[in-house]
Amino acid sequence: MPDLAIIIPSVLNGLTTGALYALVALGLTLIYGVLHIINFAHGALLMLGLYAVYYLNTRFGLDPYVCLLIVPPAMFALGYALQRGIIGRAGHGRDENILLVTLGLSIVIENLALFFFKSDTRIIDTPYSFEVVQIIGAFVPEPKVFAFIGAFVTAGLLWALMSFTDLGRAIRALAKERKGATLVGINADHVYAMSFGLGIACLGVAACLLLPSYYVSPQVGQGFVLIAFTIVVLGGMGSFVGALIGGLFIGVVEALSGLFLGESLGQIGIFAIFIVVLIFRPTGLLGHKV
Amino acid sequence: MSDTLLEISGLRGGYGAVEVLRGVDLDIASGEIVALLGSNGVGKTTLSSILTGLVSCWGGAIRFKGREIQKLSPRAIIDMGLIHVPEGRHIFPNLSVRENLELGSYRRGRANRAKNMEHVVSVFPRLSERFDQKAGTLSGGEQQMLAIGRGMMAEPELLILDEPSIGLSPLLVEEMFELITTLNGEGLTILLVEQNVLQSMEIANRAFVMENGAITLSGTSAELMDDPELQRSYLGLV
């Protein structure tokens, strides 16, 4: 049994990674909760966000955290345009069509990325990439601490938007009652696209927070999106708090099973827990009964 | 007749290839309660859905406040003050009562949101006891009050109430019709779409009876009460 000096850093590492998983899952669960579609293009769009941060940093010398002012709004606009221009239009209101459209989008985006950016794995260099912070005796890389804080701030902002603004109320109203929403004058196409845009903006934030301690390649999104799907199902489809808790939980499980089973088997723990949870709580940890 | 608020002439419409409305003529003057009566499936709900732009109109004209609205979007129609409280309520079950009312003024009446909410609560005091409760947990009668309250938040000039008595106990139906009279007393013009013929005629100034997608009878409530045709088909008299 490894002692606390090894377990604590591992848990902290898992929590910081988990916060970013949560952010990716938050976007996914928002889109699922409102549009009732599974966005298969989520990973590919995260990858685009990471490249945006990468090029803003290497070409224009912008700090990844300064990119928070540029990349999330740009990703929001991209998400809005994708939903309004392609996904909503090509879907014709049928879930299976929408599923295939987002899957197709992800294939197109990833292959365009391969063509333009090549398959090289790239990293950026920041002055704080190797700085560490000491937390209860463990050393945690600075970018991971920022990522943890940033993910929670973003989740908080999203929660406030959903709770206290007319847009948030309209998004929640539309998720359950489309006819009622139309009758109070909510433009469903617009609000659907806003929801999709917000979900994709979360990926923009995740990209800015992630790159200082991670890498980018055309396939980088795939690993994230599989874990994000797991988190969304685990937390309860469409549940915000579920996605947050699920993200942190999965991050810690991954880190601890990596510690005990070896790095290459780390993800086994995630899916083992996933299966166990679904056996006992088919609607996820915080999901509502259908 | 005093000034006409809504005038429908030769209205046709339906779903897919099925024509439901085959030329409907109807008019409502400011300040009236007009009842649109008829049994299930004659096209009453289709008519109110076309009025608010939910279902597209195939032919004929709808004039509201003197302007043709049959080609307008639901949003543009709401902006003009024609508000539809649908059959089946369609409130937002996952939102609180307060949020449901707030969304009632999503487009129209936003500036007076707080004032209008006070007014709604004064008309439906029961809603204030449930203010922070999820609307899906309300009883059927409370949900109907919420649906009407949500409609009132948009400062309607014409309020379409589609089957407000459906699924309510006789006592609650009585209460609901009294409330509708109260709202009308405050100056609100109401189109009451109902199957409940007798009670609707008691509170309505005039009524239109619909059969098979067209108006077959119309007149003041008093005239219609004496109409042998209506007595035979709807009131089970004679």
TrEMBL record, chain A:
One GO term in the molecular function aspect is: transmembrane transporter activity
Keywords linked to the UniProt accession: Amino-acid transport, Cell membrane, Membrane, Transmembrane, Transmembrane helix, Transport
Membrane-spanning intervals of the chain = 6-30, 37-56, 62-82, 98-117, 145-170, 191-212, 224-252, 259-280
Answer whether the UniProt record assigns the keyword Ligase to this protein: no
- GO process annotations (BP): amino acid transport
This protein's membrane topology, according to the annotation, is: Multi-pass membrane protein
* GO CC entries: plasma membrane
Tell me which CDD domains the record gives. TM_PBP1_LivH_like (cd06582)
Recorded hits in Pfam families, A to Z, give: BPD_transp_2
Q: Where in the cell is it found?
A: Cell membrane
What does the sequence similarity comment in the record state about its family? Belongs to the binding-protein-dependent transport system permease family. LivHM subfamily.
State the name under which the record lists this protein. Amino acid/amide ABC transporter membrane protein 1 (HAAT family)
Source organism (scientific name): Breoghania corrubedonensis
Starting at the broadest rank, the lineage of the source organism is:
Bacteria, Pseudomonadati, Pseudomonadota, Alphaproteobacteria, Hyphomicrobiales
From TrEMBL, chain B:
A GO MF term? branched-chain amino acid transmembrane transporter activity
> What domain of life is recorded for the organism?
Bacteria
Q: Which GO terms describe its biological process?
A: L-amino acid transport
- ABC transporter domain: from which residue to which, for each copy? 6-237
Work out whether the entry's keyword set contains Transmembrane helix.
no
InterPro entries listed in its UniProt record: AAA+_ATPase, ABC_transporter-like_ATP-bd, ABC_transporter-like_CS, BCAA_Transport_ATP-bd_LivF, P-loop_NTPase
Keyword tags? Amino-acid transport, ATP-binding, Nucleotide-binding, Transport
Which family is annotated? Belongs to the ABC transporter superfamily.
Protein name (Swiss-Prot/TrEMBL): Amino acid/amide ABC transporter ATP-binding protein 2 (HAAT family)
State the organism named in the record: Breoghania corrubedonensis
Q: Could you read off the lineage of the organism from its UniProt record?
A: Bacteria, Pseudomonadati, Pseudomonadota, Alphaproteobacteria, Hyphomicrobiales
